[in-house]
Amino acid sequence: MSETSTETGTGTAETPASTTGATIELENLTKRYPGNSDPAVDSVNMEIKAGELVVFVGPSGCGKSTTLKMINRLIEPTSGRIRIDGEDVTDMDPVKLRRKIGYAIQSSGLFPHMTVAQNIALVPKMIGWSKSKTKARVEEMLDLVGLDPAEFHGRYPRQLSGGQQQRVGVARALAADPPVLLMDEPFGAVDPITRDHLQDELIRLQRELHKTIVFVTHDFDEAIKLGDRIVVLRERSHIAQFDTPEAILTNPADDFVSGFVGAGAALKRLNLTRVRDVEITEYPTVNVDDPLQDIFNKLRAAQTNELLLLDKRGRPYKWLRRGDLMRARGSLARAGTLVHDTVTRDATLRDALEAVLTDNAGRVAVTGHRGVYEGVVDMETLMNSVHELLEADRQDAVEHQHELEDQRSLQTHQAQEGPGGEAEV
Amino acid sequence: MNFWDYIGNRHQQLLADAYQHASAVFQCMVVATLVGVLIGVVSYRSEWAGNLATLTTSTILTIPALAMIGLLIPIVGLGVAPTVIALTLYGLLPIVRNSIVGLRGVDPALIDAAKGIGMSRIARLVKVELPLAWPPILTGIRVSTQMLMGIAAIAAYASGPGLGNEIFRGIASLGSKNALNQVLAGTLGIIILALIFDAVYVLVGRLTIPRGIRV
């Protein structure tokens, strides 16, 4: 209780409109640890726009966390400047600085001896908000992160699930309405399903709040999902690429980045495309009600050595091969292999690929309304589609690149010519 | 005269001794707690300072109680002074050691979080580290108290207060008819006091350890 009050006297329960983001500029930011000749972070230059969610992603030990912690000076930079909203904060009192920057960490960092409400109220209390204002803010924050204030207010952290703790952690970080929020692998310790929910929540929060968020992760998928822009860092926090997720996916700057994006790029593409977008091929079909002789004839006539047997309602039932009927001595009930997986036109190509891969013959039936057969997608179709998609992406990326270069050359041109032009006027 | 008659006869004297015994231990515990936690707070962050504090206090504990009081008498005289000094010194070790262990045991991620949300050094200590280290510190206080209960009996050697007087009187007059009763009354009195104190600590723990970290 040693904090001095800086209450300005406007302590009504009304909370002001929330503060939106501030810009962050890092200039030649360097961290050297004594006894180590190589710097841990080597001269990072970066400009983060106000209201942007930037993700630092990179392998373990690349200095991404160190870089993040230098922004709120949990780690003091050896040299370089940090500017937030244009103001140089490199020499400011770190305690004061940190109260203006939200901070959320892995495993939530909630204080176990304080209730949820006490945890969230910490920063507002420290900066001298009145009791009633703080109380109202706590309820508001719980609401914001999707927890019922009445239910969770008085609980202790250990009475919450991992996901709930993480939500409270974010609520605490945002309680004093800071313009900037730093998140250090906040969802690293929760199970994949919860993590997915939390990511969705963060996206929703950011849409409402427009804070400047710097988010550290080693999970590239998380970076793709969350980031407005992504900074791919290599060792010593050297920036390998700083761009939008699309640009990084389709046009990695170098081998390091493409190695980091990995085979995932093509697979991720599959998630963004639906079965309806690719060509569905016709397949010879017969119906269980057809006479056996017709089925024999069709099997013999078909170019494929296989037929798809449909049930009475036209739904895929069995795959029939040429020899199957002979072996089953003409009994349809015993012949062929059952169809166990189908996809709809709304399924993603990834689902389709999954089905095709699990099927030993490499194809899957596409069904429509009420499971009625519509066609077949096979391996070849999938491969061709993916190739086309990736090719299109590549062309987009090249165009994007050209645009950027044009812009840049225009800027350089203006920068060189600009002053001269003015001088003439 | 059997034991119960003896108790009945001397209960006023016994109660007075018991009260003084309890009061001496309690007061020394308060001082030992304050000093012990302070030493812990000052030393826990550095490896060698913490070890030095633990080593010093445990060395004190190895000095035989009788010798300690005997050595103090020429310096501070007879009576209350040597008792209080000796008891306080003996009480330090469990408190210092548990303070250091407790403070060092606070999850570094929580310290990081506390710093990150803008808590000053003092605020971190008072609001986060000490509350989280409090259960082990309280255990240290408990152990210290039990120990001091026994050691306090020796204070009678320096004409100090407490139930030790009964025991010493009994030992001095060994063979007389009340000797055994005296020793027994003093010893049982100390045991009962120790149990009462322990019960009080359980209650203190209930009241002061936040629900969120209670085991």
TrEMBL record, chain A:
Q: Which Pfam families match?
A: ABC_tran, CBS
Please tell me one Gene Ontology term that the record gives under cellular component. membrane
Q: Where is the ABC transporter domain?
A: 24-261
Q: Where is this region: Disordered?
A: 1-22, 397-425
Among InterPro entries, the record links this protein to: AAA+_ATPase, ABC_transporter-like_ATP-bd, ABC_transporter-like_CS, CBS_dom, CBS_dom_sf, Gly-betaine_transp_ATP-bd, P-loop_NTPase
Kindly list the residue ranges recorded as spanning the membrane.
none
Q: Which residues form the signal peptide?
A: none
Q: Which keywords belong to this entry? A: ATP-binding, Nucleotide-binding, Repeat, Transport
Q: Name one GO molecular function term.
A: ATP hydrolysis activity
E.C. no = 7.6.2.9
Per the record, the similarity remark reads: Belongs to the ABC transporter superfamily.
Spell out the protein name for this chain. ABC-type quaternary amine transporter
Q: Which organism is it from?
A: Streptomyces beijiangensis
TrEMBL record, chain B:
Q: How does it sit in the membrane?
A: Multi-pass membrane protein
List the protein's name.
Answer: ABC transporter permease
Magnesium among keywords: no
Task: Give the transmembrane ranges.
Answer: 24-44, 65-93, 183-204
Q: Which Pfam families match?
A: BPD_transp_1
GO CC annotation: what is one? Answer: plasma membrane
- State the family it belongs to: Belongs to the binding-protein-dependent transport system permease family.
**What biological-process terms (Gene Ontology) are attached?**
glycine betaine transport; transmembrane transport
Domain ABC transmembrane type-1, chain residue ranges per copy:
18-201
Keywords assigned: Membrane, Transmembrane, Transmembrane helix, Transport
What are the subcellular locations of this protein? Cell membrane; Membrane
In its UniProt entry, the species of origin is given as Streptomyces beijiangensis
